[in-house]
Design brief:
The chain is built from 17 helices and two strands. It has helices at about 1-5, 10-20, 25-35, 40-50, 55-80, 85-110, 115-125, 130-140, 145-155, 155-165, 170-185, 190-205, 210-225, 230-250, 260-275, 280-305, 310-315, and strands at about 325-330, 335.
């Protein structure tokens, strides 16, 4: 069930859990689902009530999820703060951010004897942890998906790729190659980035991890734009859009994680910028489609549920009505009539 949660297959995960008798472990998995869909308050409440019901490694894993969810809620509050203009609301968000930061840091310090929690502490407060000692401990572990994640967390992508290759699991290969490709792209090593991201997208597709697939394809689009290969860029962005539509389908019937918009918004924005650079008629049509998807994604985030366009209402509009679409990007705005 946990693997299905990680892949975003929440319906499948829930069906599996429905067959299991109630237990602290089952409630912990429901907390993981709540965290996955952005119900941070619900997840954190569950984690807090379950801590004393677990021992040893199970307890550490629950605590890791608890701390990570606090960090994600903090990131959500920060995102909301950046879009808020009311000083009183800003003050409230700052207080919430500071509270989650303090609790996550205190928990990480208290349970730092666990390696994965020590990694979280290093991410939260690098001066408190010797990263070289962390790396040595991680490399001594048996190869696993957790080892890949841990190596990526301390930015050792080469070691993560080696472990992922030995495991030959598409999900882990996707993570390792994808993170490596993004790092190469940031450093301007475009051709190397394209090679890594191509391996990442193949692995993500095999693992049916559509959010990762959208991310890697979006980065491939960005890489090809930097090379001036606009047709290849469009092809990769188009695959990213199809992956985003798949992601929206997988969360149908569930609360939508409001942070999903933050993941996909840069992909949609970059594709729109490409389409609207000296556009032809087909580019404008495609831009309107992408803008509709962007609007739906914003509505998903706001209402925390999957939203749809009402086709009946659209078809009922008179034929002599003019549609005006507004697209606002970072440096300019567009009106498409």
């Amino acid at each position: 069930a946990q693997q299905q949660i990680e892949l975003g297959n929440l319906s499948h995960a829930t069906r599996l859990l429905d067959k299991v008798e109630d237990s602290p472990y089952k409630r912990a998995l429901y907390a993981n689902i709540a965290a996955r869909v952005g119900d941070y308050d619900g997840a954190i409440t569950l984690y807090d009530t379950l801590i004393d019901q677990f021992q040893d490694q199970s307890r550490y894993r629950l605590l890791w999820n608890y701390i990570q969810t606090l960090r994600e809620r903090q990131e959500y509050f920060q995102w909301q703060l950046e879009q808020e203009y009311d000083p009183l609301v800003q003050k409230s968000f700052k207080s919430l951010i500071e509270s989650d930061q303090a609790l996550a840091l205190n928990l990480s310090r208290h349970y730092r004897e666990d390696l994965e929690i020590a990694i979280l502490l290093w991410e939260l407060s690098p001066d408190e942890i010797d990263v070289d000692a962390l790396r040595t401990k991680i490399l001594a572990l048996k190869n696993s998906g957790s080892k890949v994640e841990s190596l990526l967390a301390i930015n050792d992508t080469d070691a993560a790729i080696n472990v992922a290759q030995s495991l030959n699991e598409p999900l882990f290969l996707s993570w390792a190659y994808g993170e490596s490709g993004e790092e190469q792209l940031r450093k301007g090593k475009v051709q190397e980035a394209i090679a890594s991201l191509n391996l990442a997208r193949i692995a993500a597709n095999q693992a049916r991890d559509f959010l990762a697939l959208a991310r890697w394809q979006g980065n491939l689009g960005k890489a090809y734009v930097s090379q001036g290969n606009l047709e290849k860029a469009k092809l990769n962005y188009e695959v990213a859009i199809k992956a985003i539509e798949k992601v929206r389908q997988t969360v149908s019937g569930y609360r939508v994680n409001p942070m999903m918009l933050k993941e996909i918004e840069p992909i949609l924005r970059d594709y729109l910028a490409l389409l609207l650079n000296n556009p032809e008629q087909e580019d404008l049509k495609k831009a309107v489609e992408i803008q509709k998807l962007s609007t739906l994604s914003e509505l998903d985030s706001y209402f925390k549920t999957l939203c749809h366009l009402d086709v009946k209402l659209i078809s009922a509009i008179k034929s002599d009505v003019v549609y005006i679409y507004t697209i606002i990007l970072e440096n300019r705005s567009y009106l498409i009539v």
